[in-house]
Design a protein that fits this description.
Number of domains: 3
InterPro entries: CCDC138, CCDC138_C, CCDC138_CC
Keywords: Coiled coil
Strand content: under 5%
Protein name: Coiled-coil domain-containing protein 138
Radius of gyration: 50 Å
Helix content: over 70%
Largest sheet: none
Pfam families: CCDC138_C, CCDC138_cc
Length: about 475
């Protein structure tokens, strides 16, 4: 047994020795392999570092080249910008010089325009004076012919006949046009089976404009011969003339210049109303009695603008405001109109004839002479009365607020005018629908600026301005 065990141990020992030898050989191989791998790794690292250094050098050179190129471009751009800046400064200086020259030319142009307007106004006044002198001469000649009982009776009769024929011709012309108008626009359409199309044509602005332009000149001539005290004749005539003027102004502003002489004659006829009537010359020569100039003038002293009837007087005042431009006459008309508007009847007529735009044109800064008079009328209409609300509604328009903005922006402002205007604006600011007009025309900003610069002695104006701002910013607006 021991031998067997020894043999087995010897066999195991030989196997272990053989295994140890193989492991030693393997260890030698691994060391050799490890050495080769280390050498290879060092070679690869050296090669990699060399390649990296080369690539880094290439990138660095490229970067330097790009930097140089960009710096060159930047210098060129800076030069270009400097050149453009110099050009811009030159152009700016030239523009400023041209702007100053333009402003100078514009101011010169405005001066020339004002001079032209002044010359035109003087020419117009001279023409009016000439026409008035001509009428006075005709009146004196007529008076001279009327004084002798039997001096030139035939010539007096011929003049009377000519005047009667002229009056009749005007009446016939107006009557014919009116009858043709009524027949075409109303009677024929009333019996037509298809009334829609003709009605549209007869209601068109062009059709109405044509009829109005035909009637107005003859209607003005008829005013001279109408018995002014007969309201059944004179009142409808001036009513038609007033609405015709409104229509002409709204529909065809370019044609209004063609009626300038007619409108001037209309305003003068309504204001003066002293045309001599030849009622006495219509008698037989044996019945002619000499008349003094005062007696002849009194025949038409109490009609139209000088009428005792409030309706006729107010309507004549509105027509005169639309037709005349003489300062003294318009000042008298404003005084009469302001005095008439103390009654509620006159206020009702003022609203019926939509007279707010008529007076509003005199509130513009270009009519500085009449701004106070126009504001007095508006203030009188805005006082507590049954017609206060309708009047404020007529002022709640874009045109009214545009004009008010022009008044507030005027360089020279009258404190009394601003106080009166603030009263009306305070009442208008209570209407919610008016807020947009206050904002669109920057009236709020103007009021704030006025409030900041309001002197201490104008406490009433400051109070009204604060009330306006409070109404616009609070939720109490109607």
């Amino acid at each position: 047994n021991i031998r067997d065990i020894y043999k087995e141990l010897q066999v195991i020992s030989e196997k272990l020795k053989a295994e140890n030898k193989s492991l030693h050989e393997r260890e030698q191989k691994l060391k050799e392999r490890e050495r080769m791998v280390s050498i290879s790794s060092q070679n690869i690292q050296t090669i990699a570092q060399h390649e990296i250094k080369q690539k880094l050098q290439v990138v660095e050179e490229k970067y330097k080249a790009d930097i140089f190129r960009l710096e060159t471009l930047l210098r060129e751009k800076n030069k270009e910008n400097k050149r453009l800046k110099d050009n811009f400064e030159t152009l700016k200086q030239a523009n400023d010089a041209l702007k100053k020259e333009f402003e100078s030319l514009q101011s010169q142009h405005e001066k020339l325009e004002k001079q032209a307007v002044t010359v035109q106004a003087r020419l117009t006044n001279l023409q009016r004076k000439q026409e008035f002198d001509q009428r006075q001469k005709e009146m004196e000649i007529s008076m001279g012919n009327a004084v002798p009982k039997q001096q030139k009776p035939k010539e007096a009769e011929e003049k009377t006949k000519q005047r009667v024929q002229k009056t009749a011709g005007c009446c016939f012309d107006v009557t014919g046009i009116l009858l043709d108008w009524v027949s075409d626009a109303h009677l024929r359409c009333a019996v037509s089976e298809v009334p829609g199309k003709p009605l549209e044509r007869f209601l068109s602005p062009e059709y109405l404009q044509d009829k109005v332009m035909k009637i107005l000149p003859s209607a003005v001539d008829m005013l001279r011969e109408f018995p002014g005290q007969n309201l059944r004749i004179s009142l409808p005539c001036i009513q038609f003339i007033y609405w015709a003027l409104i229509h002409v102004e709204n529909c065809a502003g370019q044609q209004k210049s063609g009626l300038s002489s007619t409108l001037r004659r209309l305003g003068e006829e309504l204001y003066r109303a002293k045309t001599v009537r030849f009622s006495e010359l219509e008698k037989s020569p044996s019945e002619i009695v000499p008349s003094s100039p005062s007696k002849l003038d009194k025949s038409k002293d109490g009609i139209y603008f000088r009428s005792q009837n409030l309706h006729v007087r107010l309507l004549s005042s509105l027509i005169i405001l639309k037709t005349l431009s003489q300062v003294d006459l318009l000042a008298h008309v404003f005084d009469v109109l302001r005095n008439d508007l103390k009654s509620d009847i006159a206020k009702e007529l003022f609203l019926y004839y939509q007279a707010t735009p008529v007076v509003l044109q005199y509130l513009k800064p270009v009519n500085k002479t009449f701004m106070g008079s126009a504001m007095d009328i508006f203030l009188q209409m805005s006082t507590d009365s049954p017609f206060q609300q309708p009047f404020l509604e007529t002022c709640s328009t874009e045109t009214w607020f545009r004009t008010i903005a022009m008044v507030l922006r005027a360089p020279s402002q009258d404190s009394k005018l601003l106080e009166k205007l603030s009263i009306i604006l305070q009442k208008l600011s209570k209407f919610r629908c008016n807020r947009k007009y206050f904002e669109v025309y920057t009236i709020v900003g103007i009021i704030q600026e006025l409030l900041r610069g309001c002197p201490t002695d104008q406490a009433f104006l400051a109070l009204n301005l604060k009330s306006i701002l409070f109404n616009l910013t609070s939720g109490a607006a109607q």
